[in-house]
User: Fold Protein FAM107B from Saguinus oedipus.
Amino acid sequence: MAEPDFIEDDNPELIRPQKLINSVKTSRNHQDLHRELLMNQKSGLAPQNKPELQKVMEKRKRDQVIKQKEEAAQKKKSVLEIELLKRQQKLEQLELEKQKQQEKQENAPEFVKVKGNLRRTGQEVAQAQEF
Assistant:
């Protein structure tokens, strides 16, 4: 790049160029606003200029990406993992059925419980006599 010829100090009569003053940056209002924005940014209180529709659309997109990742993780499950999940579900169902039966027995009237006990003792006596 060519250097300007006003740099030479041989002629003192020449007017040297000076940087122009930016009136916006020197104004007190601008300085205060700039200082406030910097403080807010440091503390994490940056203003949200996004419209509400854009925020909602971004949230939906994030949710959709998360859902796709979960589905991909489920598709990558091995045969062993699938079998283990099936067994776990069966065991949970059996436990629920046992709990329901216990609740039914607990809620049954007293004479039904006694009748069941008598049947069991009768069967035990019959088996003991056979031996």
